[in-house]
Amino acid sequence: MKFILKFAVKTVLNGVVLYLLHSYLAGFIVRGDYVSLLIGGAVLAFIGMVVRPIVRLVTAPIVWLTLGLFNLVINVGLLYVADQILPQVEIHGYLTLLLASIIISLVNSLF
Question: How many distinct structural domains can be found in the chain?
Fold first, then answer.
């Protein structure tokens, strides 16, 4: 039950972050209405809660050797995967991808 509640909160939170990124970050485009935002939020929540821990476990030695800087590469890669999965989200440019990844990671670290 706790996992479902946490997943629901992260879905809504990621949907809000997607909306804010679309509004304020040039090159970050979300097509559709609030349903698209919730679907995008759910995909980001799933990636963050299920896929990210597995990737971090596999890449733990590299993260240790780089003193944690490789986590940024992991976050950018997972956001790129989400961009490829979601047809309603388009990210243009590597700088936009990097900034969006940092913002999403900061917001997700709060919950």
Answer: 1
